């Protein structure tokens, strides 16, 4: 009932949300990932849909139900997430990057299980930096010309406001949402700050769906 009565502030808009962690394979049965639950991203996808948008969520490995009416594309690695995101943002109006993308992946992926060789010496792993999905989309022609509004997320352990402002500038995006992590991972509530060119606005502690609805209204205000 509450969902049905949300104002349709994004009616006719196409919204793409990335959510959850990525999984970077090391061999066919092992890999590197993180504790992102995807809950915030899925809450935002739901809130955007309630607000009348046509919504796609590009999801890393998460254990969540797809919100009603939302199109879901499942991916594993950051590179797969980049490809699905570039395809989906080509005609989108809003891009919201909530995914906890692995910053690095193993430099090589073995096509067979890496076995102990009996020497007692552990293997040394080397890493390659993953593509920055948000920064890549933010540099696209569609974003640069104001047809695609990009929103970033940042979980910081300290000095939230300064780190969030710096990250917004570095990514070249109009709006960045900051929270103090990783304490919010998997929880059902959160508290956030919104950082834009005009400064910082606090959204006090609330459920993730309530914060998602507030964020959707803030995005709609900036995209009349
Ligand atoms: N992001 C992304 N692709 C990456 C890394 C991050 O799209 N390879 C997006 C996240 O979805 C988030 C924003 O960028 O919206 C900020 O992510 P964060 O990890 O806080 O920033 P980084 O630039 O990776 O910096 P660091 O982890 O060193 O703080
Ligand atoms: Ca990162």
UniProtKB/TrEMBL annotation:
The catalytic activity, as recorded, is: (R)-4'-phosphopantothenate + L-cysteine + CTP = N-[(R)-4-phosphopantothenoyl]-L-cysteine + CMP + diphosphate + H(+); N-[(R)-4-phosphopantothenoyl]-L-cysteine + H(+) = (R)-4'-phosphopantetheine + CO2
The pathway this protein participates in, as annotated, is:
Cofactor biosynthesis; coenzyme A biosynthesis; CoA from (R)-pantothenate: step 2/5; Cofactor biosynthesis; coenzyme A biosynthesis; CoA from (R)-pantothenate: step 3/5
Q: Which residues bind CTP?
A: 103, 113, 131-134, 153, 167, 171
Query: Which species is listed as the source?
Result: Ramlibacter albus
The record's comment on protein family reads: In the C-terminal section; belongs to the PPC synthetase family. In the N-terminal section; belongs to the HFCD (homo-oligomeric flavin containing Cys decarboxylase) superfamily.
One annotated GO biological process: pantothenate catabolic process
Keyword tags: Decarboxylase, Flavoprotein, FMN, Ligase, Lyase, Magnesium, Metal-binding, Multifunctional enzyme
Q: What is its EC number?
A: 4.1.1.36, 6.3.2.5
| Segments forming domain DNA/pantothenate metabolism flavoprotein C-terminal | 10-221
Cofactor(s) required, per the database record: Mg(2+); FMN
Q: Which GO CC annotations does the UniProt entry carry?
A: phosphopantothenoylcysteine decarboxylase complex
Q: Mark the transmembrane ranges.
A: none
Q: How is the cofactor bound?
A: Binds 1 FMN per subunit.
The protein's name in its UniProt record: Coenzyme A biosynthesis bifunctional protein CoaBC
- Phylogenetic lineage: Bacteria, Pseudomonadati, Pseudomonadota, Betaproteobacteria, Burkholderiales
């Amino acid at each position: 009932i509450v969902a049905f009565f949300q104002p349709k502030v994004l009616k006719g808009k196409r919204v793409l949300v990335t959510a959850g962690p990525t999984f970077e394979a090391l061999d066919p049965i092992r890999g590197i990932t993180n504790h992102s639950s995807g809950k915030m991203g899925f809450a935002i996808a739901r809130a955007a849909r309630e607000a009348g948008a046509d919504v796609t969520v590009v999801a890393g490995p998460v254990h969540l139900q797809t919100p009603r009416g939302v199109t879901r594309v499942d991916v594993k690695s950051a590179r797969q997430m980049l490809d699905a995101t570039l395809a989906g943002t080509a005609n989108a109006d809003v891009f919201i990057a909530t995914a906890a993308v692995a910053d690095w992946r193993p430099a090589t992926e073995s096509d067979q299980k890496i076995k102990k060789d009996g020497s007692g010496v552990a293997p040394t792993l080397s890493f390659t930096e993953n593509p920055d999905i948000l920064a890549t989309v933010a540099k696209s022609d569609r974003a640069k010309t104001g047809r695609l509004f990009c929103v970033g997320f940042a979980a910081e352990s300290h000095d939230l406001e300064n780190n969030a402002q710096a990250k917004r500038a570095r990514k070249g995006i109009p709006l960045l949402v900051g929270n103090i992590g990783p304490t919010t991972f998997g929880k059902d509530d959160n508290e956030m700050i919104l950082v834009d060119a005009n400064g910082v606005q606090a959204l006090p502690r609330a459920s993730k769906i309530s914060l998602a609805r507030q964020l959707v209204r803030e995005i709609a205000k900036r995209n009349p």
